[in-house]
Amino acid sequence: MVSVYFFKLSDKTEYDSNLLPTNVKEHCKKKESIAAAIALLSMGVKNLNYDENNKPWADNCYVSISHSKDMIAVCKSDKPIGIDIEFMATDRDYKKIANRFYKGKELEHCNSFPTAEAFYEIWTKKEAFSKISGQGAIEIFNGFDVFSLEDYEFQTEIIENFAISVCEKKI
Predict the structure, then answer these.
(1) Does the pLDDT of residue 128 top 90, yes or no?
(2) What is this structure's pTM?
(3) What stretches of 9-133 show up as alpha helix (H) in DSSP?
(4) Is 50 helix (H, G, I), strand (E, B) or coil?
C-alpha cells in the first residue's frame, strides 16, 4: 500500500534536527531534509537510514523524498517506490526541452497537449522512476520512454502550481 504525504514548509516553523535519531540527523542539514525525515518517521517508517548517495531507506518499507521550492513530498510503500515534485515554471520553452529529452509517446503526448501540465507530468514521472532505478539524470532523460515501462505504475497529480508523480514497481 502506498502512502503519500506532501506539505508546504513554513518560514515560521523551526525544523529541529534534534528531534531525529543520530544516524538520520547527520544526513539532514537543510530544513527540507529535516522536515521530510520527520514526516517519514511520523508515517511509521522504522529505522530510517541513508545510503552513500544520501538516498533514504528503511527496515519496514520503501521510502522516497522530493522537494521543490517550499513543498515537500514523501512516500512509503511495501514495493520499490519513487516520488518527484516540481514547481511548474511558466517561463520555460517546453517544446525545446521536450524535443531534447523526451522519446516516442512522451513527445507525442507533449505535442498533443502543449501545456505545462503535460510537460511536467512526464518530467516528474522520469524523475520518480530514477529514484527506483538508481540511474542518473543522463540515463533517465536520454534512455527510455516512461510510457514503455510495463513493470511500473505511475500516478501524477497537479496541485496548485506543482506536479507530483509517484512511480511504484509492480511485483
Answers:
(1) yes
(2) 0.87
(3) 22-25, 31-42, 94-101, 104-112, 116-133
(4) strand
C-alpha cell read off for 50: 541513508
Q: Is the pLDDT of residue 151 over 70?
A: yes
Per-residue confidence band for 11, with pLDDT thresholds at 50, 70 and 90? low
Beta carbons within 10 angstroms of residue 44's beta carbon = 11
**C-alpha neighbours within 13 Å on the C-beta side of residue 53:** 6
* β-sheet with 3-8: strand ranges across: 3-8, 71-77, 62-68
45: three-class secondary structure by DSSP = coil
15-67 per-position pLDDT tens digit:
777 778 777 877 777 878 888 888 888 888 888 888 777 788 888 889 999 99
- Answer whether 78's CB lies under 8 Å from 43's CB: no
Contact 153, 170 (CB under 8 A): yes
The 3 state secondary structure assigned to 122-166 is HHHHHHHHHHHHCCCHHHHHHHCCHHHCCCEEEEEEEECCEEEEE
Rounded Cα–Cα distance for residues 6 and 73 (Å): 4
DSSP 73: E
